[in-house]
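Before relying on records like the one below, remember that each one covers exactly one chain. Contacts with other chains, cofactors or solvent are not represented anywhere in the record.
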Amino acid sequence: LFCAPGVIAGAVGSRGGDAGGLFAAAIRRQEERHNALLARTAGNENPYDLHQQLGDLMTRTATVVRRNEQLVAAYDEVCTLEERWRRCAISDTGNWTNQNVVFTKSLGDMFPLAKLILKGALQAVPKVSADDRVVLVGDRAVIDDMLAERGFRDPRVEVVHASEIIGMDEPPVEAVRLKRDSSINICAKISGPKEPNRCDAWISAGNTGACVAAAQMFMRRLDNVHRPGIAVTVPTCAGPVVLIDVGANIEPKPHHLAQYGVMGDVYARRILGIENPRVALMNVGGEEAKGTAEMKEARDLLRRAEDLNFTGYVEGRGVFNGDADVVITDGVVGNVMLKLAEGLSSGIFKALAREVFEIDPALAGRLDPVVKSLYAKHDYHEYGGAPLLGVNGVCLISHGSSVGRTITNAIRRARNFVELGINDAIVRRLEAAQFAEA
C-alpha cells in the first residue's frame, strides 16, 4: 500500500532522468492518497477494534452459521462495520507511511471480500440441469426475503418451511426427537423412502450428529448395512484418499469396520475413479500382532471379503504417504485425524508465508502462484461434502467452514452419487460379503 520513504529515496537516487521523475510522481500519488484519507470526516472509531469484530464475525459465520437468516444478519453486520470504518479516527504522526493509515486502508479492503463470501450461498442453482430442482429448507419468510433482495427467480427452486432449528451445541439424538419441524429433520424426511415425491439427496453443513440421527430415523439403512459411516475425501500429495468413518460411529464393532471397507471401496471406484482401490485398516502399527482383538477380527473379515483389495494395517502417516486409497477407522480417530490434519496444514502454510515474507517480501510475491496451485490441489471445498454411506438415500454433510463454492460442489457430487448408482452397488457388494452382525 505504501512504500517506505528510505527505499524510494534510495531507488530515486540510484536512477537518473525519467526514472527518477517516475518515482517522484509515485511518491506524490501516495502522499495524495494519504492526505485524502486524513482529510475525510472521521469520528472516534478504532480500526483495530473493527478489525477484531470483523474477524470474529466471519469466523463465527464460517464455523457456526448454518441458516439463511443468520447469513443475512451477518451480511447486514458487515455493512454496519463498513459504515463504522468510514468514521475511523486516523492520527497524523507527520510520517505519511504511519502504520495507522496503512492498517485502516487494508481494513477497508476486507469488506468487499466478506460480502462476497456471504453472497455465495446460491451459486449452485445455475449448475443443475433444467429437469432438476433445488429445495431450500428453512424459515420461509427469511428465505423469500433473501431471494427477493438478490433478485433471484428460478422455477427450479422450491422453498419448504421449517419452524425450528437444531443448534450446533444441542445433543443430536434428543434434538432430532424433540424438534420434529427442524430443517435437518425435514430434509431427511423429504428424502426418505416414505415420501411419495422424495428428494434424491440432501445436503447440510449443520450439526453432524443431528444429520446422522435424522438420516437413520427417517431414511433408514440400506439392506445389509449394519451401521452407516461418514466417508471424507482427504486430498494428499499422492492423490485423494477416502477416510471412513469420521464421526458417525464412535464405537464400531468389527463387522461395522469391515462394511466400511466395502462401502469405501465402492465410493472410491465410482466417485474417484480408482480402478482397484487399496483398502487398509488404521492401526497403531503395521505389524500383524498389533492392535486390539476387535481390530484383528475386523482385519480377518476384510481379508475374506470378495473383490476387495485389502492391504492390511496402515499407520497415520501412511494416509498422506500414499499407502492406501481407502482408510478404515472408528469415528473418534477419524474425526480427530481429519481436524488435526486441517489445523496442521493451515498452520504450516501460515508459518511458511510469514517466514518467507520476513526474509524477502519480493520472494513472497514470486511464490504466490506456487502457493495458490498447492492450495487448489489440496482444497477440501472442491469435494463439497462427505456422504453418509449406508443410508437409504443420499445425505451429504458439508464442512463447518463451507462457502458458496463448497455447496455448489456438494450438489454436483450428490448428483453424481445418484446417477452412478452408489447405493445399489453397496447393497450388492455387502450381500455378497455377508458380514455377520454380532
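DSSP finds 16 helices and ten strands in the chain.
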